[in-house]
Design a protein that fits this description.
Catalase HpII,  Chain A, domain 1, binds protoporphyrin IX containing FE
Length: about 325
């Protein structure tokens, strides 16, 4: 397993050596640098943009907790006081110019602004599972895709490699295939995928997953109708919707049971798990993106802890690397 300390080593996932097929790779890279390089190969470098979920739209929001999560966590935003939040909706593509219709999965990243001046993030997407179980496997799939595209890898070899990962990617591919174009960013169900631990006042830890459920219900468009929309129809629609009536989401917390996996983002939990309605997020108005905003899903407050999911733990350094590059104008 890929531990957090290993993420910080100056050795990449591929062992930190050069690959003969890529003469531009320096000798020693961190795993996060390698991952972000590989993301940049998907659609090229778009200076100033995030290396994934490149195009997005930010809103000012308010979260009113229901108090039902308070017995399970000391997290300040899950008690009984309203907190402010920043929400960024995004298309999943690495290319900021790609039409909304063409990037199937959408993202919703929430940054709760805590009373002590700190913050806590919660990042969701419209599919319930990820396609890779470990950073190594994520990298192998991404490099295979990129190298096949540029003709550096024969298709037969690519197929052999993808077949190796088929069982872990299957649920995610099926979910992506079932996705229909959303009617609005405000009418999607967003899954935060990874397991987190809620920590109560006595230090007891309970595994949970977070989901954002739209109050207006899940609404989709036919491909035909979505194809007639402007490339950025989701941003335009959300602006208009916020003027008419503030859209809102319910935060649903799902509790894991004995034996439910905590380390595997490719696996769902059984659908009968206990849930609580932890509060309501209301989208208030569009805002310009705050400078330096990074929705690192490992940046969380006390009362919530990371699980042993290696993908979750790997995301911290890759998001920091992407921020470093985009803030430097690259
Ligand atoms: C190995 C796994 C992953 C890698 C390497 C990765 C990488 C990245 C990078 C580099 C960014 C841009 C960060 C920035 O510049 O601020 C990003 C953004 C994002 N990622 Fe991931 N990611 C991974 C897994 C996931 C998963 C499992 C989810 C599902 C919840 C996810 C959802 C998102 C979303 C919604 C954004 C946009 C955040 C925002 O609006 O600021 N990613 N990802």
């Amino acid at each position: 397993m890929f531990s957090e300390s290993e993420n910080h080593q100056a050795h990449g996932l591929s062992g930190g050596t050069t690959d003969s097929s890529d003469t531009h790779t320096p000798l020693y890279m961190t795993a996060a640098e390698e991952a972000v390089d590989e993301l940049e190969r998907v659609s090229g470098v778009h200076p100033g943009y995030r290396r994934a979920h490149a195009r997005g739209f930010c809103c000012r929001a308010s979260f009113l907790p229901s108090g039902k999560a308070a017995p399970f966590t000391t997290a300040p935003h899950l008690q009984d006081r309203e907190v402010k939040a920043i929400v960024r909706f995004s298309g999943s593509s690495t290319d900021p110019a790609l039409a909304d219709l063409l990037s199937p999965a959408k993202g919703m990243a929430v940054q709760f602004l805590l009373p002590d001046g700190g913050h806590s993030n919660m990042v969701g997407v419209t599919v319930p599972v990820f396609f890779a179980r470990t950073p190594e496997s994520f990298m192998e799939m991404l490099t295979t895709l990129n190298r096949t595209k540029t003709g550096q890898m024969p298709k037969s070899e690519a197929l052999r490699r993808f077949a190796r990962h088929f069982s872990e990617s299957r649920q995610s591919l099926l979910a992506l295939k079932r996705l229909k174009p959303p009617a609005s960013y405000a009418t999607n169900l967003y899954y935060c995928i990874h397991v987190y631990m809620l920590v109560d006042a006595d230090g007891r830890r309970r595994p949970v997953k977070f989901e954002w459920i739209p109050d207006s219900g899940v609404q989709t468009l036919s491909i035909h109708d979505a194809a007639a929309m402007p490339d950025d129809y989701l941003e335009r629609e959300l602006e208009l919707r916020m003027l008419a009536q503030p859209p809102s989401f319910k935060l649903s917390i799902v509790f894991g049971e004995e034996g439910d996996p905590t380390h595997d983002p490719t696996k769902r939990w059984p659908s009968d798990r206990k849930r609580i309605d932890a509060g309501r997020l209301v989208l208030l108005e569009p805002i310009a993106e705050p400078q330096g905003l990074v929705m690192d899903p490992t940046a969380i407050t006390e009362g919530i802890a990371l699980s042993d999911d290696p993908i979750l733990n790997f995301r911290r350094d890759t998001y920091a690397e992407s921020l470093k590059r985009r803030s430097g104008g690259h």
